Structures are given as structure tokens and as C-alpha cells.
Sequence to fold (87 residues):
Amino acid sequence: MTVVSDSSPLITLARIHCFALLPKPYGRVYISTEVYREVVTDGAGLPGAAEAAQADWIEVRPVENTAVLDAAIGKTGLAPVNLAVRN
Fold:
């Protein structure tokens, strides 16, 4: 099974000290480079940053079809999270 995650499960599970539970049902978890940047780089020092950076079961891959991503963002109204909300 291929599992792709956005930042919310990574951050939320880190906040409740259950980050290590994520690979148990799925094994490898894929995240985009944008999610990695949001959680690890931009979120340095916040919940999930160190955990995601050190997790050998997370594989970072770039989004291959940005047109599909842009269409999904337009359809759902979802957009990158403002990090100020995470504090």
C-alpha cells in the first residue's frame, strides 16, 4: 500500500508523542518536498520537525503533476498552512 501524508498527521502525532505509531500500519510513508520543508525546515524546533527529519521510514518525493495539485487546491480551497497557527 502506498501512503502519502501531508503535514497534519506528522505534526499531530508528534504533539501527542505518538509519532512512532505512523509506520506501524503503513511501513513507508511518502511526503512531498513541500511537506518536508513545512514540517522540518520551516518548522524547525516545532513538533514533528526532528521526528520527520530522523524517520527512516519517511521518503521525500517531489510532486510530479503540479497541475493536478493546483486543481485540487482550487477545488478544495486548501492551501499551505501558515506556520504561525502551529505555535
Notes: The first strand starts at residue 29 and ends at 32. Strands lie at 29-32, 58-61.
